[in-house]
Every structure is written in structure tokens, then in C-alpha cells.
Amino acid sequence: MNDQQLVILLNEMTLEEKIAQLQQLAANFYEGAESGGQITGPMEAMGITDDMIINSGSVLGLSGAEQVIAVQEAHLRKNRLGIPLLMMADIVHGFKTIFPVPLAIGCSWDLERTERSAEIAAKESAVSGVHVTFAPMADLVRDPRWGRVMESTGEDPYLNGLYARAFVRGFQGSDLKGDVNRMAACVKHFAAYGLSEGGRDYNTVDLSERHLREYYLPAYRAALDEGAEMVMTSFNTIEGIPVSGNVKLLRDLLRDEWGFDGVLISDWGAVKELIPHGVAEDEAEAALKTIRAGVDIEMMTACYVHQLPELVASGQVEISLIDEAVLRILQLKERLGLFENPLRGADPVAEREVVFCEEHRTAARELAAKSCVLLKNEQVLPLAPGQRIALIGPFAASGDILGPWSWTGSTEDAVKLDAAMKARAGVGQITVAEGSGIDTFSEELWLEAETAAQAAEVIVLALGERSEMSGEAGSRSDIRLPEAQRELLLRLKALDKPLVVVLFNGRPLDLSGVYDMADAVLEAWFPGSEGGAAITSLLYGDENPSGRLSMSFPVAVGQIPVYYNHFNTGRPLGAPDADARYVSQYLDIPNEPLLPFGYGLSYTTFDYSEPVLSGDKMTGDQPIQISVTITNTGAVAGEEVVQLYIRDISGEVVRPMKELKDFAKISLSPGESRELTFTLTEEQLRYYHSDLSFASDPGKFELFVGPNSRDAKARGFRLELAAVENKRHVLS
Ligand code: GLC
């Protein structure tokens, strides 16, 4: 149907039918397709009537080809105008084949495999009846106390934008209507949810508009520029107004300035949460504020269906606001081809072949291997064939390696570390002992572990967080490993054997008592369905670790927020003329993180030549080329992530010490050299000024090329702009 036909359909709808289209309910309202959703517990509590179900516009969390077909067909039998349901769900990093959590994927610096992971997730979801995924999550994160950092790709706006684009391309493809193996992307959580105060979920966010635009908005914008069909509002406030009721953010910026005319959905309950936030007295005021802000779909509360009829009747809400919201939803259904093909890709036969197939699991294993980060290695890795290994720890044989957003993923199906290592090294080489619980210590478990360790040449210690210790509502004030695991490590250390720690976690941890004690540390995050196989391939050197941190590891929780693109301050620690005390510092810990953004080790070594610039002057139409030769100076092949940063020495506002502007992940054989040439343009030097104009400033800059944000070679250059060139794009 074209827009004209959709408007005709819209005009045939009653007000109740229109308003019900704005309602999204969870799958349990629809269970038992033949009943079409009998009045059950949650329905009664929410005052949801059968008619509201019959006329609702979308479902949250329904999947399974047969189930979706049954619900959709039952719905179409009852819906007066035959308007199909949208099936939406959280497919964040895989449907049944679970890929590493996004923070792990963020450490892969592999955009191709990232896109492939989203394409596979879409294929498995679509064949199981899902039309829309609530992903990518493009929140910039700087506070590992926040449980949801595992859902983000990290602390850099540029890198997050590249990942957001890759996820959208993979989910949606280039022909959403024609390719039923794809699904629509809903970028979330708009906006700046990652800045929740104290790292405590759902908490207040407050920042300047300049900072919001400079750091927190770019990745959402990138997802929309890539064509993401939907946006989800975040739970937090911006400038004192909860996002779901924030006209300035949603209408003025998202819709008017950015031109987004897609569907805007609230997060779960976020409409009604205007009441506890304290900007709405009741559901009527909550509905009024959010429909005016442009929220099209209310997820899992019922302010719209209960209050909008009266608000329209009383003239407080113009019917045009309802119509525009309904039309956007109908247009999305049309773009997904649901009017012609309401079952879209749901196919019980194909589902059995496609979901969790070997090809998909191979892709998950490859991406997991690329996402692990070697944080330390004092010549104990890779393991040698034939070595007797004691594999100890609560994650030695755990399936809880999928992460907190794996939804239909199965921990039983996950490849566990013990099975993979036994398969690789031979059963006789690997002795497994739990050693301790996640957060409980037992002398009995310890004695088993001690016996295993004493008989071994190398100890591999698999430690970490339970998946629900991160994720939504998973904030922690103390981000160390639980005491029981640190006790286990301490006791094993006393046996004076090579000690390799493998970490399974959803956030950068405070590695006090771990990093210094271990001879090697491999960060595996929540590696997904094939995690054990991926980790084993790295431990034995079948693959060379190539992950690089996309989020800093703090020295201690007291250092948070710590991130690489920070400002210098007026009294930077370490400045040549700095006073010993009166500088920006802690009395008890360093300012620098334990491990910086971009950091990661390899089993080989790489040498960087001095960067050579095409010139030391850049103009508006004359970029600078930077050439650097990288050599693999070690004995094994490996991948290096060559990173290019800049620093604006003097801006109109303070500028970060470094900003990532480009990178290249290259593979080099032993002894092989490769010359890379980056091009840096004036556009890449632009930033938001105090008046929110977006422009570059002529003057002195530095650029850095290196293996991470700390160890990089610097070169200076100047940007020179003719007066006319330096025209600022002042925001309206
Ligand atoms: C949750 C999350 C959001 C998710 C939604 C639907 O509260 O904040 O990321 O997409 O509800 O499950």
C-alpha cells in the first residue's frame, strides 16, 4: 500500500482503534491464540480489555514460527480492518546462536563480522516470526558500575557509530520489504542513558547540550543515517525532563532537526514513569506529555488506551497527534510488507534448519575469538600441547556465558570451557575443579582444586560474574570479582605455578588482587554460544588474540569515570611545571586507568615506524596523509589494530586529550611489514562550539598513531582556514 492508501485506512479507523494501535503488550497477553488473549492476571491489573488486544498494534517478546503464525492469524480474524501485528523483541547479540555481548564485539574492531552477526541474528529471528529488534543499543558508556555497559560497544562516539551502522546494516539489509530474512532495527536508548548518575540504573542524567551532542548523540545519529527504522526512548531525564516526555529532545532535535519520521517507542513502562519522575500527576498527564513529545508506541503500560480518548474528546490532545503516530506505525508495517504478507518470514520448516545451524555457530565462534582481549601474558600463553592443565573456577564448566540479554539463547547448548579444552588437549591433559562458587567459598571445593593444581603444570582459572550481575538493573558499587573468587586465586597463587586467569564478565572490572597475581589474563566477556571453543583456540595459540579494549579498565572503582578522551584540566598531573600536590590527582591511586582504551596484547609483537605526514599544514580542501609501516617482529602471525587519534591543542572549548578518528585491523605474518596510509580531513576536526555550531578551528593539532590510546607516536600539524572557509554551521 502507498501512503495514500494508508491514509485511507487510517481514516477508516475509529478513535479507539487508532489509540489501540499505539499500545504494545507482552506476548503473555496473546498466549493461546484461539482465545486471542483472555482476561488474565496482567490484563486485569492493567485494565486491558479484549478489544484493546484485538486492536493493538504490536507485541513484545513473541517468537517461534508456529506461535507467531497462530497469534497473527487469530489477530487478523478478529481485527476489523485486518491490520497485522508487529512482532518486536530484544535480539541484542543473537537469537538462538548467541554472539558475544556487544561490549565484547566492541573489542573486536571487526565491523564485517559485526555486520555478519546481525545478519545471522536477523535470519534466525525472522524465520521465527520476529519483525523488529530492540537493537542496536548505542549508549556511550564510561561507568562500569552500570550493568548495561555490556550492551554497549564502548566509550568512543566514533567507534560506537561505526558499530551501530554495522548492526543496522546486518539487521535490515538493503531491502527490508523484499528480504524476509531481515528485520527492522530500533536504536536505543535515546538518549544518554549510559550517563546514569553513580552508574545506578534508571538514575538521573544531566549534561550540557554541547556535551550531549559531542559524545552521546553521534552513535544514535549514525544508526539513523544507516536507516534504522525505529528509536526507543530511555528511562532517564535530560535537562530535568524524562526523555519520553521531552519535546526538545524528541520533537525539536530527533524529528525536526534530524528529520527522523520513523516510529518512536517508549521503553518498558517509561510513559507511566513520568509520574514517579514527578512531571505528571496521573496517567492522563503522562499520556498528554508523551504523545505531545511524539512517542508513538507505549510499551507495557496503558496510559494511552485509558486516557487518550478523553484527552482527545476534551480537546487537550489534537487528533492529528494520534493520526501521525498511527500513520507512522502503519507505514512501518507497510515497509515490512506485512499488509501483503502478515506472516513475513515465519516458517516452521526453515526454522528447524536455520536456527542454531553449524554455519551460524561457526560465525559466533570466530567473532568470539576476535572479541577476547589478552590483557597480560608473562610468557605463559599459548599453552603447549601435552601440558598438564588444571582448569579451575566457577566458570570452568559453566554455561552461563551468554550474557544477560541472550533471551532465547540456551546455556545448555553453550560450548563450555572444560569440554572445549578436553576436546583440544585430550581428556587426560585437563583436570577440572570448580574451586569455589561465584560468591561462595568452600573448603571442600578448595581441597579438590588444590589437588588438581598440585598435579598440573599450569593452572587455568576461569573466574567472573554471574550474568545477572550485569545487564539491566545489574549495577554494582564494588566491581571487583567476588571475595570467594579472589580467595581462590590467592590460595592457588601460593602454589607457585603458572597461573592463567580467564574472565567472564559484562563490564570492565576492578582487577585489584587479580591482575597483579596472574601470569596471564584473557578477557573473554560473555563470549556467547561458542565461548568455550573460542577461548580454547586462543589459549592454545590456534588463533592469536586480537581484541582491543573499547572501554577502559579502572585501577579502582574510586577512579570512575575514567575514559581516554578526557580533558586536560588546568592543573594536569605530570605537567613539567606542576606542583607536587596542587594538581588534579588522587592521593592514593594514579589518574590513568589500569588498562586504556584500545589496549590489547598479542602472541607476537609489532613495530611501528615513525609516522610520516604528507605535510604539516592542513586546509579546508587539503587533507593530510599519514603513512606508517607496521612490522610483525615476532614468530607467529597476528592481527594488529592500528589506531589514529588527534588532539586539538586549543579549541573554543576544551578539547579531549585524544579522539579516535580512524583505525585499521591488519593481519601480518612473522617478519611481514605493511605500510598504511590514513587520510585526515578538516571535517574530522570539527566539533560543537559553545554556541552549538559545528566547525573546526584553525590552529595547532597533534595526531597520534599507535596500538592503543596510551602508547602512540605523536606528530604535530596546523589547520589553516581562509576566513570564508571557517563558516560555522550554527544550529537553528
Ligand atoms: C527493557 C530495556 C530495553 C528493552 C525493553 C523491552 O526495560 O530497557 O532495552 O528493549 O525493556 O524488553
From TrEMBL:
Domain Fibronectin type III-like: start-end pairs: 640-709
GO MF term (any one): beta-glucosidase activity
Enzyme Commission number(s) of this protein: 3.2.1.21
Keyword Signal: yes
Pfam family, one: Glyco_hydro_3
Keywords, sorted A to Z: Glycosidase, Hydrolase, Signal
Keyword Signal listed: yes
Domain of life the protein comes from: Bacteria
Catalytic activity from the UniProt record: Hydrolysis of terminal, non-reducing beta-D-glucosyl residues with release of beta-D-glucose
InterPro entries: Cellulose_Degrad_GH3, Fn3-like, GH, Glyco_hydro_3_AS, Glyco_hydro_3_C, Glyco_hydro_3_C_sf, Glyco_hydro_3_N, Glyco_hydro_3_N_sf
Any one Gene Ontology BP term: glucan catabolic process
PANTHER family for this protein: LYSOSOMAL BETA GLUCOSIDASE (PTHR30620:SF16), PERIPLASMIC BETA-GLUCOSIDASE-RELATED (PTHR30620)
Family: Belongs to the glycosyl hydrolase 3 family.
Protein name: beta-glucosidase
Source species of the chain: Paenibacillus albidus
Lineage, uppermost ranks: Bacteria, Bacillati, Bacillota, Bacilli, Bacillales
